[in-house]
Request: fold
Amino acid sequence: MPLYSKSSASLLLGSEELSNYSDTIVIGTVKEINPSKWNSINGKRPDGIDSFSLENLIYTDITISVEKYLKNPSSAKEITVRLDGGTVGNDTLKTDYEPTFKPGEKVLLFLTKDVTIGTSNIEPKHLRVTGCMQGKFTLTDDGKAVRPDKTVSQDELLNAIEK
Reply:
């Protein structure tokens, strides 16, 4: 039987809090949205389950081409960002708290190490968006940084990060 679940969560964070809670902050471009997988050993639906849980969930990895590190620079030119949710076969896990990504989208991301029980130990090495959708801004050509609940100038956001 196909599984479908939808969940949401939120804790409001300001730019300074996002910066303080993040292990790294990057500006980059979405290179690829990788196929979703189950968090099982083989990436497929575990036998005998009838609902999602921390131990049985679907995740999606996003490959980001890094233009610039704003906090804790690294030599890595690409990073992997992991999100809860996705579709594998007939099973879909939708989350209201995770950001959405589009290939080619220019983004500023507040990122933290993955400490999630269900996905932290699954390769490749990856990060999570700090504060869920609050930690992802789309950068526009007219100098704006946009997320679903907020639009600020890129300069204002960068100044908040540098504090």
User: Anything to note?
Assistant: The first strand starts at residue 4 and ends at 7. The chain has one domain: 4-162.
